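G., the chain you wanted modeled:
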Amino acid sequence: MKKIRDINRISQKEAASILNIARSTYNQYEQQYDIIPLKHLNKFCNHFNISIDYIFNLTLEKKYIDEIEEISSKVSSKRIKELRRSLNLTQKNLAKELNIATSMLCEYEKGHFLISTATLYSLSKNYHISSDYLLGKTNKIKNLKIIKDKELMPN
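Predicted structure as tokens:
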């Protein structure tokens, strides 16, 4: 987030204002003392015209052609469930791999809660699937070829 902010030559206070949060809260996210909620991360990415996959360092592609701004818990729940089934995993097995409670994965799959940022990142990275796709922000990009560490955009 800091690199994106620096490239765009804005202060932490200005970035916080974009997200409608306190500068101290934004600083916690930028310094990685706290995990940014998806609604704020999505707003950040939309403002700077970048994909969530890009900010997660999962792709060098900054933005997808068909990308929309909204996150859909309804679409997300369906896609998480489809992914789990395509991997032939039970909710219990996937939850264990993601280090979350089975009941939480069940809530994500039912669309009762939007997946957490940390869980989304783990799911995307471990299974090479686009976070933007899982959230319903794009329909075309599904599988990612995870880029090598040397290719990553520095954080």
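The chain has two domains: 2-62, 73-134.

Shout if anything looks off.
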